Amino acid sequence: MKENEHGFFRHGDNAYLANFSEAEREVLTNLVEQIIELLAERVDHHNDDPLAAMVGITMHDTPPDDEVLLRLLPNAYADQVDASEFRRYTESTLRQKKQAHAMAMRMHLMSAVDGIVEVDHDGANAWLGAMNDVRLALGVRLKVEQNSHEDLELLAPDDPMRGVYAVYSWLGWLQESLISALMDDSE
What are the DSSP calls for the chain, one per residue? Predict the structure, then answer.
C-alpha cells in the first residue's frame, strides 16, 4: 500500500502536500465515503420542537447499535442517565463534524491534480480527523482491542483481514507524516 513514500510534507507557509497513486486515492475515497454514509443522521421522528432541531438536540439518547458507529460516537459517561442526556445534546453536532471532516478529505482526493493533494492548516486538521475515524472503524473490524499488532502481522496471506490491516497500518503512517509536517510549523 505504501506507493507514496513520503506521505505529507510541508510546502510553503501554509500548505501540506502528498502524492497518491490512483489506487491509493480510490481506497481513501471509498473509505471516507463509507464513513460519510455511516454517520448519516438518525431520523428523529419524535422531535417536533423546531428550536431543538435547529440547535441539534435530538430525542436519541441511546448509543448506536452498530459497533463501528458506537466507537465513533461513544458514550461520554459511564452513568447511563448522564450518557443519555449528553448524547441528546451532542450526537448530532458530533456526527456533522465527523462527516464534514470526511467530506473535506473526499473533496481533496477528488480534486487532486496528478495525484497531488494539497491542504491548508484547516484541511490538514480535517484530514487528521477523517483518517482517525477511518482507523477507528477499521480497528473495530480488526478487533485491535483483542488482537495485538503482532497477531495482526501474522494473519494468513489469504485472510481478508490482512488487507484491512495493511490499510489500517498505512493510514497510521500517513497520519504520522501529516502530524510531522504540521509540527514543522511550530519550529
Answer: ----SS--EE-SSS-EEEE--HHHHHHHHHHHHHHHHHTPPPP-TT---HHHHHHT--S--S--SSHHHHHHS--S-SSHHHHHHHHHHHHHHHHHHHHHHHHHHHHHHHT-BTTEEEE-HHHHHHHHHHHHHHHHHHHHHHTTTTS-HHHHHT--TT-HHHHHHHHHHHHHHHHHHHHHHHHHHH-
CA distance 117 to 32: 15
* Residue at 65: amino acid letter: D
**What would the pLDDT profile of 91-137 be if each residue is shown by its tens digit?**
888 999 999 999 999 999 999 999 999 999 999 999 999 999 999 99
Q: Following CA atoms 87, 88, 93, 97 in sequence, which dihedral angle do they give, to the nearest 10 degrees?
A: 30
Nearest to 166 by CA among 27, 73, 54, 64: 27
Over residues 29-59, the pLDDT tens digits come to: 999 999 999 998 665 555 566 666 656 666 7
Spatial CB neighbours of 89, under 8 Å, sequence gap ≥ 6: 56, 57
Task: Answer for the pair 11, 17: CB distance below 8 angstroms, yes or no.
Answer: yes
pTM for this model (two decimals): 0.86
Q: Where are the domains positioned within the chain? A: 22-186
